[in-house]
Backbone:
């Protein structure tokens, strides 16, 4: 059995990618199963999806704890403990990360176990579709390549799944072409074919409790959500050019998050840990003092 | 007589202090959160929010809260009943002298369109009839957004949702009209009601400030442009919110003791400009243009404004 786990942020297409992979496997005559999981959280928050592929009927259900392949749609998730990307990864696991870094660089930076391979899908999506979110077909194709599915079944699976989402034929075709380019471009790593891993029964997870200072006690102390950073949600960041700002406060009034504060001199300041990168501020700015920059790992950590 | 703002005439009058803090797990570019944040600047921190289940369930995900006020969570159908309980408790405590009068709190119901237009309607009707002194803040994203964008009674004609897809039988998607909750509330004769849009922040702040003078049920319908459910890029939230007003689909109005005043009279651009921005209306334009459906939407808007202008 091949067990594939996808990690992405809501809106990046991890769920659709797992469906594409499952459908492609099904078209090749395999038995396939796919299921996503997203809790109460939403667009931008961590999402996971699971695909199981086998020649025999699959009797396992639920989350995949020991995946053969992990596909990560957003590199910033690796550092997020809540996303649990690293869970169950050992040196036998193949890991794909959507990142501009090459595998060795990424491995050195994050000390991920497993056999790493990377490709900058976001950049390809921006060039081809002008949209950062349009990577579901690309993810599906990459996953298909890594588990060893055929080009033709990937192409057909993309057509089926994207048509279900109501996309126009021309858009689907462009997705297929781009996805198959990624299929060819991704550096493949051999998957472990040796002895099957022992199936460990999954117990109900014991919750990890926050210390009282952050948990129950804090909740009576007023707004404590501000200690959470949502910086990982961004693909683009708004950047203020103070010389062009006329201090009209439109960005301050329109920021849904309250990530823009007004300094004593009446000019706005963006507090990046709280900015989800919706870019509403850039859209309303009358003097173009706010510009858009592609988010980078270095900038996010600064 | 033209509507005049009294307290909020320019953007620099918007209070700087925040009462809805960042770090919520709500979607990037959420129009509902934008409205709530602006509203809270007027409401202040002496507030109990009674939150019906919905997208705003995610506002205060334990152990975190973005509010510097109290928060009570209820089922979708019972937020106004919860507000009644909180209000009564406050009144009793103040009457008994166990709570100083200065520490009285405002009671604000937060409901989505699913609860406002649909599930909580009977309990809301009861609360208004009992003249409960509370604010009802509805973030109207025109669908059951939290559960995956299903049809709600607030979904407008022609929109595609996950339970009203555009198929052979219904090529235009949703076939029913948006329920007119404003008129349903008005029939109950509450002292204050208003519609607001986050793209018109001064209008929004002004209305919340005005409402403070009135005791009794106060309704605020906030236009909550929803990037996730309406399928547009979060960056366009302000544009969608602005065009909804400019095209006449979301009239900005208030009703004091039942008398309706429009606070902004748009020049009324064609509705197409608004529809074209959103993926939920894409099927009206491609692959084949559904002129009849677009004309229908335009005609509804025209009829509304004809009746307003007499």
Residues:
């Amino acid at each position: 059995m091949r067990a594939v786990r996808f990690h992405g942020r809501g809106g990046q297409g991890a769920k659709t990618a797992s469906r594409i992979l499952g459908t492609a496997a099904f078209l090749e005559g395999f038995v396939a199963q796919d299921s996503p999981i997203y809790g109460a959280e939403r667009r931008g928050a961590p999402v996971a999806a699971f695909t199981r592929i086998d020649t025999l009927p699959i009797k396992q259900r639920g989350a995949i704890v020991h995946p053969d392949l992990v596909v990560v749609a957003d590199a910033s998730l690796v550092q997020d403990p809540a996303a649990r990307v690293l869970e169950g990864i050992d040196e036998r696991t193949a890991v794909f990360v959507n990142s501009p870094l090459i595998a060795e660089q990424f491995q050195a930076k994050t000390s991920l176990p497993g056999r790493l391979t990377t490709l900058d899908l976001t950049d390809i999506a921006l060039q081809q579709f002008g949209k950062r979110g349009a990577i579901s077909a690309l993810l599906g194709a990459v996953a298909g390549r890594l588990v060893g599915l055929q080009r033709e079944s990937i192409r057909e699976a993309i057509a089926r799944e994207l048509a279900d989402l109501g996309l126009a034929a021309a858009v689907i075709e462009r997705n297929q072409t781009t996805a198959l380019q990624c299929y060819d471009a991704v550096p493949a790593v051999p998957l472990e074919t040796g002895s099957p891993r022992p199936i460990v029964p999954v117990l109900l997870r014991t919750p990890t409790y926050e210390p009282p200072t952050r948990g129950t006690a804090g909740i009576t102390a007023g707004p404590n959500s501000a200690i959470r950073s949502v910086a990982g949600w961004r693909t683009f960041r708004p950047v203020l050019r103070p010389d062009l700002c006329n201090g009209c406060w439109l960005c301050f009034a329109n920021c849904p998050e309250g990530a823009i504060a007004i300094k004593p001199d009446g000019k706005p300041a963006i507090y990046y840990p709280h900015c989800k990168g919706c870019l509403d501020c850039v859209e309303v700015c009358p003097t173009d003092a706010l510009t858009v920059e592609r988010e980078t790992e270095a900038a996010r950590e600064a | 007589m033209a509507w005049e703002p009294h307290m909020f005439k320019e953007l620099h009058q918007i209070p700087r202090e925040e009462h809805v803090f960042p770090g919520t797990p709500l979607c990037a570019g959420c129009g509902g959160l934008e409205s709530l944040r602006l509203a809270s600047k007027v409401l202040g921190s002496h507030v109990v929010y009674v939150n019906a289940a919905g997208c705003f369930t995610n506002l205060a995900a334990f152990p975190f809260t973005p509010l510097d006020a109290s928060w009570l969570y209820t089922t979708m159908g019972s937020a106004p009943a919860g507000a009644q309980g909180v209000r009564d408790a406050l009144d009793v405590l103040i009457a008994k002298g166990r709570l100083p009068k200065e520490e009285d709190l405002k009671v604000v119901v937060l409901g989505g369109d699913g609860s406002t237009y649909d599930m909580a309607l009977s309990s809301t009707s009861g609360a208004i009839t009992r003249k409960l002194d509370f604010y009802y803040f509805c973030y109207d994203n025109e669908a059951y957004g939290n559960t995956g964008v299903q049809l709600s009674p607030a979904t407008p004609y022609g929109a595609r949702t996950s339970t009203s897809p555009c198929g052979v039988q219904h090529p235009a998607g949703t076939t029913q009209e948006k329920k007119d909750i404003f008129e349903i509330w008005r029939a109950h004769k509450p002292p204050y009601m208003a519609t607001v849009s986050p793209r018109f922040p001064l209008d929004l702040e002004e209305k919340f400030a005005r409402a403070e003078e009135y005791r009794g049920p106060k309704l605020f319908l906030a236009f909550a442009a929803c990037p996730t459910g309406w399928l547009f890029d979060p960056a366009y939230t302000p544009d969608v919110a602005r065009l909804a007003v400019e095209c006449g689909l979301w009239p900005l109005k208030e009703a004091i003791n039942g008398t309706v005043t429009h606070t902004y009279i748009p020049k009324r651009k064609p509705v197409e400009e608004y529809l074209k921005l959103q993926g939920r209306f894409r099927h009206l334009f491609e692959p084949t243009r559904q002129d009849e459906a677009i004309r229908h939407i335009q005609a509804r808007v025209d009829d509304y404004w004809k009746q307003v202008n007499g």
Q: What stands out?
A: Chain B touches chain A through 52 residues (CB under 8 Å). DSSP finds ten helices and eight strands in chain B.
